[in-house]
Design brief:
The chain has 154 residues and is α/β, with parallel strands linked by helices. It has five helices and ten strands. A four-stranded mixed beta sheet has the order 1-2-7-10, sandwiched between helices. The chain has a two-stranded parallel sheet with strand order 3-6. A two-stranded parallel ribbon has the order 4-9.
């Protein structure tokens, strides 16, 4: 992110973020959070986009019954991503959180793999994951547990 911003000064910048960055609990999430801070601090027009998406079909043998997402499969989210970027005037700073409603990762995974095995966040030992990516920010961002919201960044 830093290198791209330096390479193209003054050019409107789209930053694709992740739900992880809203409640960082591991190195990946912290680096995404820090990159978002760089984008927001820059003077140029920027679009900070949080489009949580997953590969279709769900790529893992198990999914957590106690992990929540607003995300969906990439084929569902891609048209939403294109739509909000095309609608952006490129003369302002925007932040946009996209989603298709709050659901467990297990419920999302079952849509493409009815044989998915259930697990719990505590069962995942290879990475520290939050049970709810959005944590307390969910209602601040959306006012409800569902929906999407784009707003000018001040």
């Amino acid at each position: 992110t830093r290198r791209l911003m330096a390479r193209y000064p003054g050019v409107p910048f789209v930053f694709v973020n992740t739900e992880y960055a809203l409640n960082p609990t591991n190195h990946y999430a912290r680096t995404k959070y820090e990159a978002a801070q760089l984008v927001r601090a820059d003077d140029r027009p920027t679009f900070d986009l949080y489009p949580p998406f997953w590969a279709n079909p769900f790529p893992h043998p198990a999914a957590c019954t106690d992990m929540y997402t607003l995300g969906d499969y990439v084929d569902v989210m891609a048209p939403k991503i294109v739509g909000v970027i095309e609608a952006w005037s490129r003369d302002s700073k925007m932040v946009c959180h996209l989603g298709t409603g709050r659901k467990t990762l297990y419920n999302l995974a079952r849509r493409t793999n009815p044989d998915i095995q259930p697990c719990r966040v505590a069962d995942i030992k290879t990475a520290k994951l939050p049970a709810d990516y959005l944590g307390e920010t969910r209602t601040l961002l959306f006012g409800t547990e569902d929906g999407e919201k784009c707003r000018r960044q001040t």
